[in-house]
Input
Amino acid sequence: METNVLQAEALFIKDEPYYEPVGAEIKIFDAAYQNGLPVLLKGPTGCGKTRFMEYMAWRLKRPLVTVSCHDDLTASDLVGRYLITAGNTVWIDGPLARAVRTGAICYLDEVVEARKDTTVVIHPLADDRRVLPIEKTGELLRAGPEFCMTISYNPGYQSVLKDLKQSTRQRFVAIEFDYPNAELEKKIVMHESQLDESLAGKLVKFAGMTRNLRGSGLEEGASTRLLVHAGKLISAGIEPRHACRAACSEALTDDPEMLNAVNELSASLF
Amino acid sequence: MSNAPFTFSELEAQLNDTLELVLSTDRTTSDIANTLKDLTREQQEFVMKWSIVSSRSNAELAYQFVENSASAFRKMSMDDVHNWLIQAMDVYDRQGLYQAASVLRKVDKFSQAARGKTNSISFEEVAGVLEKFICGLSGRDLKLEAGDIFFTDTKRLFLPGVITRFKKQSDNYSLYKSMATQLWAQTWYGTFHINPVTELDQFERRDRALQLFCYLETIRLTHCIKRDLPGLHREMLALHDQSETPKLGPDWLTWIKKLEASKATVGDTYDAVTALYNLNKKIPESFYYQPLLNPEVVVAVMAERINEEKNALQHALNDMSGEFRSAKAEDDEPEELEFKVERHDDENEASGFRYELTADDEPVAPPIDVKNLLESIFQDLGEIPPEYLVAAGDGGYRPGGSESNNSCKPGDADVIYYNEWDYRRQQYRKNWCWLKEKDVHPNHEPFVEQTVKKHYGLIMNIRKTFEALRGEDRLLKRQTNGDDIDLNAVVEAHADMLHGMEMSDRLFTRPSRLERNIAVMFMVDMSGSTKGWINDAEREALVLLCEALEVLGDRYAIYGFSGLTRTRCEIYRVKKFDEPYSNDVRNRITGISPKDYTRMGVTIRHLSKLLNEVEARTKLLITLSDGKPDDFDGYRGEYGIEDTRQALIEAKHLGIHPFCITIDNEAHEYLPHMYGPVNYVLLNDVKKLPLKIADIYRQLTH
Output
């Protein structure tokens, strides 16, 4: 069974992840953590929420348990279940229970994607009780001071069916993320993709242009993550226009007219 | 069905029916019928069909079309004739009947252009991409239009209707792009920071000065483009090689060098104009991407906008100072706050600049609308004059005024009263709006059938995607009975049993369709401004939606709205929730026609009430609109927006999700405030409404 159970040590982040603070998010998270408050990260895709979590886990020297939520995620996927081996049953902790036991930081990514009944499981953990009842074993796991519950959520989705319930959201300290400002974004792109300053600057300018189109046909502008992808392609010797096309334009939209316009924008810069 | 052409008398009878409105004793259809009788049956049917369509916009337009159609068919293929008519209808929507008729009369010109199509590229082909391209470049929203003169009035960019200059189509496309960018550059790099009228009036030979200015300013702007958009500049140069470069004397070169310095402003261009004007030498031939300039138009448009924005900024600052003070809890502070703004060059910002607003030397973060105003004012003036930063008093207009006689009477049994929100008073006006529900007058034209036929492929496609959505076959786990065994459940049950616990009987999986418990209400703008293609697009969109929703099984209702003053608000029933999509409904959709004004608040309140009576887990209120709330008696501007917003907040309290689909290009300025930043969609092109609406709905309820 050992192979299936990741040891908590394996989830420690050993090397410092690269993270550039945008505002007071590190301080707020620190304070929330010290006070045992759960945290909600809001923000568009690719703006650094997950990287922030890795960084905080490293900083607080706690293991990080990440669960990417999907619409088939059940409560027992989170909490755990009995399995059978050689006629005996063995209880296997789910990621949430494991995080509580080891005092890890549990990060539920894109929590709105999970079924609504699933999100209710985290409620007792996310208020001052800080407990996780495991019905099957009759256990009541009490979270230690090191445990931290974190969820992320993208408020930009235009779907009425995927919204976070008030009863869930009102348990969390919320930190809002947005794309970093241009100077910082340039620095991030340079660091992550080893580009020189002028090329990175152009990429950031290109991202700004696509963000101008948000709401005029594009759902989202190019995220910092897409810029880093484009940067890496350029560093690998791909011509900038082609890199932008492959890493950004095609990822942003399928509408041929919009695709054309976005490509024209990148072509006008490089 | 016979394939023989219509006879003279058949044609005449049909035309008399269609064109009845514009015929008289002097003007009959017999001449036209005479020209049409030699066409093939297919061509004749085409003419008849489109004369009916165009007569819906305007009967005279239809007359002009029919009159010229025989000669058009002699010169062009059916596709080109179709394009010719579509172009005329576009022109009619934008510029009115006179211009449209002139397009229809110029059959020759159009047919020549159609023949030269191999290398030519038309405005319609590039407008979509270029508009997005310009929008991406930053600055205020600019609208692209086809026009006879290549210039900008700082609000719209006018480009030629078709370009045939180069042999290769791709080069002609590049030229379009360069031209649009030049016009954008005029608005972005401050060509109009100095009033061109006063400046150019100083010259005796104003034409020469203007020509010189255009030439030199293009050089300056081209250099700006080279600096900021090097890729595009390379493309412009590539085109340049194909034309001739003029040889210039040393005087010219000195000045051109000055204009190519990165700090050069429009002031330097005027200096150059003054210096070179006196040299009395021939002005070099203009660049192929060199725009013309119409100083008077620019100054007039700018003055109007600047005035509006000044007022808007002052009001916004007034609101901000209120918030600022209450935040500091110094209500007794008597003096006005002193606002200052500084603009810092910031090469890395998308717009190239960063704005810092301070109130009494304390930095404040400007809300997004104030930031946009500041940007736009800077774009026009190159600075924010101090008087713009004085917060306005609490004055302003008061709604109210004349009331029509044509209104409901308070005693009428079927009148429903609704409150209206007055944001100035921060309270409701009691029973302010008088609303009546009416039926749309059914129209028996085969509009729905035609739409279904026209969009046959699209409808099949929509059906398929929506079927997939409906048939979201999910495997229901842990069922008491089903087709297959749920292994997870069995393992758990087994484990439970071994532990001595009771074994669950829920051990099966069963595929099942997820029930979509959605009720959706469509609120359709029937105001006068929707006349013409917008109305057609709305109706087509509704037809496609009904087709889609019938597949999906979501409950839906359709209501139109219009009105004239608060005492005559009208809601038109098209389809009620419990009504099937019957022929009556189809005829009522066909019968949707433009009426008066757009009083949105009362409509939202009424429809929310109806929606609230329906049992559903998710309730949606989708508005199809073409502009801001607007009514005759002062229900416009902030008053209308705030009342609509309040009505939407009330709807949200009832558990209704409001959403808006609009084609108003200025929607970004007010819709986020009314509906919330993610609860609306802006379509740039009304023609896309029918194509997109099903998609939007699918995304919304996925």
